[in-house]
Amino acid sequence: MAESWVNSAERIGADLHLEVAAAGGRRAAVAAALREAVRSGRLAPGTRLPPYRSLAADLGVARNTVADAYSELVAEGWLTARQGSGTRVAERAEPLRRGERGAISAQARARDESRPARARDENRPARARGSESLPPNARGRRTPPPPLPPPPPPRRPLHDLRQGTPDASAFPRGEWVASYRRAVLGAAGEVFGPGEPAGRVELREALAEYLARTRGVRTEPGRIVVCSGFAHGLRLLFGGGVLRGPLAVEAYGLPFHRELLAGAGVRTVPLPLDEHGALVGRLGRERAVLLTPAHQFPTGGPLHAERRAAVVDWARARDGVVLEDDYDGEFRYDRKPVGAVQGLDPERVILLGSVSKSLSPAVRLGWMVLPERYVDGVLAAKGEREAWASVLDQLSLADFISSGSYDRHVRRMRQRYRRRRDRLVAALAEHAPHIEVTGVAAGLHAVLRLPPGTERSAVKAAVWNGVALDGLAEFRHPDAEMDTPDGLVVGYATPPEHAYGAALEALLRVLPPGSPHTAV
Fold it and tell me: Which of 161, 180, 325, 366 could share a disulfide with 229, CB 3.0–4.6 Å?
């Protein structure tokens, strides 16, 4: 495979997303992109920029191009450069424009201060159930029936290649404990009271800076609401009555999300897919659409630039909203980073993300980056007492991000997952060349295209051999009109490092054979 920008990212120190214009001179374009990132508040004063060699490799330009752009901005006063300290965003006395910098807006601050300090206690003990249903014993007392024997524990697979789960053994325990310790020891007393529905301001400020820097998101802390993950965000938006159906969705996606939406009374309408992502030109009378534009799940590939712009135009024309599931935007290998669609129009796009893929699903923390018009509705749906996301975990994650530990962890895992992806592709090329592997430029899983009519037998063979994986058909919307090719969705991130080789060997044993004329 071609050499990737991800190798240079290991030396950057902090990920940086820049929108560099294609027209004009490259030095001027890089300088303009950096200047705009500082002016808009995406790069806060004091932020250390990547070495010019690393940023040049990231952007695919010459080193001197970035070095000259840095020098120009230093001369203009946007940046400072000191020996041993690197290049940083200059401290400026002039405040950034309101609504674009990482500070809570006056409207959001007034909303926070207007809430009662102590909310109603929603955790009253449930009323004891009556004993009328219990049979009487010889003395007339009610005797409960004997307990049923516990069900047998589910059989654990020998090799776990399911999608959607990072390597649990790679959780950065030491760095997380250090962040937790700093967060708890430095916390004010009020931290240990009831949490705010919006989430701790420390985490919202850290997320606003991080998402602006790495994903091109335009927001402020007052528009971020902390939740426990993507599914919780969907429940708040649709179960809480903030949004209503019908909802357009991609023809392939997680069945769990469709079931959650159906439980909230939301009808989902599938959009066909091709190699450029969802066919957003097929959007009809829906008022909302749910997309995975950075890396379509599970088929892979980003939403084409023209379609990104088209879906925002659709939302403006229909007074609708785009829900952007940014589930694994940090992990890309053979392409330059793709910014969030939210950056095109923060008032028409709701971005939802979490740390379940980048850090661990055990850390039940996610976020919603909202247009201003939806903030109050989401907070009302959450209620006055935060019952989902631990305040101490929020403070720990805020420190984890602000200290740079999150950037370092993501870079380590990006390298590890790329090596695993490469091993998977090489093993298939050597032992199963008739199997096409797709969707591997980013993310934590791959799609193996199988010969027609072999998916069901391959899934059964996997079960018999103790290999946990998913068939592609499981993710297809039941009302989708597009053809369903046979395939397997293989999560190469899930096994611990020492077990990955054995998992690959087991996978190869369950794949359908090629034709007798297939060269090996």
Answer: 366
Residues 359, 170: Cα–Cα separation, whole Å: 9
- Closest C-alpha to 218, from 378, 36, 31: 36
Q: What is the pTM of this model?
A: 0.75
How far apart are alpha carbons 326 and 264 in whole angstroms?
Answer: 22
Both tokens of residue 134? 């219990």
User: Could you report the per-residue pLDDT of 244-283, keeping only the tens digit for each?
Assistant: 989 999 999 999 899 999 988 999 999 999 989 999 999 9
List the structure tokens of 340.
């969030």
Residue 183 has phi, psi (to 5 degrees) of -65, -45
Query: 4 in helix, strand or coil?
Result: coil
| Residue 407 contacts residue 15 (beta carbons within 8 Å) | yes
Q: What is the average pLDDT value for the chain, to the nearest integer?
A: 83
Q: How far is CA 189 from the centre of its chain?
A: 32
**What is the residue-wise DSSP string for 332-393?**
BSSS-----GGGG-TTTEEEEEESTTTT-TTS--EEEE--HHHHHHHHHHH-SS--SS-HHH
| DSSP codes joined into one string, 241-269 | TSS-S-EEEESB--HHHHHHHHHTT--EE
